[in-house]
Amino acid sequence: MDILGTITEQLVQEGAEAVLLLGSFSRGEEVPYSDLDLHAVYQTVPTYQQRIAYLDGRLVTVSFYTWDRKELAFTDAQTALWNIEGMRHTRILHDPEGRFAALQTRAQAFDWSQVREGALGRIGSHLYNTIEECHKIMGALLTHNAEKCMFAMEGIKWSLAEISAFASGALIVTENRYWSTIHQAEPDPEWKEHFWTMLGFTGASVFERGEATLKLYLRSFELHGEHVNEEHKNTVQQTAETIRAFLAQGGY
């Protein structure tokens, strides 16, 4: 594809030490509206983080990285979650010193155990940091406030999804299959059911989705509450008890 050569040449002239093709084009899954997703890697990243433009009618997105940021995928759980599979499927356009090729080899050998300890700590943080959203959902269900319920669900769904991903080590191949990747990797049937309902894939109403979100938080606590640190444990435990009592009264 000539367009890739043009972009690569321009980025190299601007000082990029590696130019990489990611996304649907690197996996052979592109469709007519897919963008070209490129990463340019520098020793010191430029002041701009991303460049988006059309070139010959094709949307091109160039994201700018340092080598240190690429390395983070091997030590930070959240970065690993989103980047390891991408590294494995990356097509190298320019890498004269082989630095990214070496990272790609490491990505092929990556095992979730390398970041598991940090991942478990994040599970506890998510259970603690989403307490307010749980209370907002209960208030919304009690008053039949659909807008408040939707807003609170938007705030909590990413954290509940990551709890499962951090526990299972479900590496994300593409954001287009983010939810299904987590759903398929989760071993607990009850968690999976509440998760799918929360996301709206079952045709449930807003209030049914809100109730499913509370059940999902509760199930997440039952499965992973041991990872909450001592400082937050009592508060998270009390939140779980409050949700149980709310649901026992009939929810909404």
UniProtKB/TrEMBL annotation:
<protein>
    <recommendedName>
        <fullName>Polymerase nucleotidyl transferase domain-containing protein</fullName>
    </recommendedName>
</protein>
<dbReference type="InterPro" id="IPR043519">
    <property type="entry name" value="NT_sf"/>
</dbReference>
